[in-house]
Amino acid sequence: MLFKYLSAAFLAVAQGAIIKRDSPKTLKLDFHVAVNGTANGITKRDSVDYDLQNIQTEYLIELTVGSDYQHFSVALDTGSSDLWIPTPDAVCTNDICLAYGSFDPRTSTSYTDLNTVIKDYYVDGTFAFGDYGKDDVHLPGGNTLNQFQFGSMNNISGNVHGLLGIDFPIFESTSYQSGEIYNNFPMALKAQNIIDQVSYSLYLNQLDAETGSIIFSGIDKAKYTGDLVVLNISTNDVSVKTNDLVLNGQSLNFQDDIILDSGSTNINFWDKNIVDQIYQELNSNSNGLAPCDQPSDKFLTFKFDGLEVDIPYSDLVRPSNQAGKCWVGVGYYGGVKENLVGDFFLRKVYVAYNLESRKIGLANAKYTDEEDIVDFWF
Ligand SMILES: *[C@@H]1O[C@H](CO)[C@@H](O)[C@H](O)[C@H]1NC(C)=O
Ligand SMILES: *[C@@H]1O[C@H](CO)[C@@H](O)[C@H](O)[C@H]1NC(C)=O
Ligand SMILES: CC(=O)N[C@H]1CO[C@H](CO)[C@@H](O)[C@@H]1O
């Protein structure tokens, strides 16, 4: 999750119109799900005040860039807006930064230097600095995204190794620096006629699955149960409003915006009172360490207009390195007054983001290999 409060002045942006399409064009990218513990030492940016060292999940997308087809993997992030990759000689505070490949602008003859600095700051206080450039991104299926703008980073703090940010363009580094925006990944895909619409659907698959997928400008109707409930995006970010949060049948009286952030692992609340009530219910200590043996017939339920998403307590914990103790996937987000829901929530749902109509479709996920990809209808 990008630190988004450097300049609120740029956040008022006009609402896009729905585009009428004749023949739908979609792009599906599969990702590798990396959970800390299965893919050595992966971490990503998450809540500020919560120690997440032991439960980190990333959705790794492999990209191929440049005239010399350089490969690297970046983490898909619906909570930031730039693509960035470390350079081979990047100065990093953690070796993880080069573990998934790098991009060397000097060896690609199709690279164009933009002579512009990129500076991304994240909510946990970490940052990635570098230079913007443009180069060709070779996509699966044979398409090429020509001269796409991204950052080659040479100064990286924290435990990250590259991000594919697909949030609204107002959160691009240029936007904070000069108020200008450029076509980020989903926008460029549309501008170059590879997809029809600036929209995408996320299927994270079940807890122990190793793969998932994102479909740009398409919805896989096989991957959810019931109807996809269409909600308005409720803030400047990819968020929707809840009607309530229910803990083992008890209302927590929670009507608030939640940001559906693939760059977060936990379900993070700014209201510590909500976190405390959940910890208490799961017999957790104040650090979020609870017994692993949690019931599967008691639920934390998110209520929306026309949809309930039940998360069994047993799916709210992941193993720690202390015997019998697990980390609870709920945290206190001490940064600003917003709620970020990551992997622990997103795995339970199928979520379709339409950044043009500013609507989000949500349904309970159905874990299956079947596929029925259609165009967005909202
Ligand atoms: C990286 O950026 C930090 C923060 O601005 C700065 O203190 C540090 O000197 C930079 N490191 C390099 C190698 O440029
Ligand atoms: C959603 O937004 C539309 C305008 O785009 C508005 O007409 C409608 O009332 C909103 N619905 C809700 C539930 O806020
Ligand atoms: C569950 C697990 O293996 N967690 C590991 C995650 O990574 C940190 C440091 O990188 C280890 O200390 C944990 O043991």
From TrEMBL:
Superkingdom of the organism of origin: Eukaryota
Record domain Peptidase A1: where: 59-363
EC class (word): hydrolase
A Gene Ontology molecular function term of the record: aspartic-type endopeptidase activity
Pfam families: Asp
GO biological process, one term: proteolysis
Enzyme Commission code(s) on record: 3.4.23.24
Subcellular location: Secreted
Active site (UniProt): D77, D261
Keywords carried by this UniProt record: Aspartyl protease, Disulfide bond, Hydrolase, Protease, Secreted, Signal, Zymogen
Family: Belongs to the peptidase A1 family.
Protein name per UniProt: candidapepsin
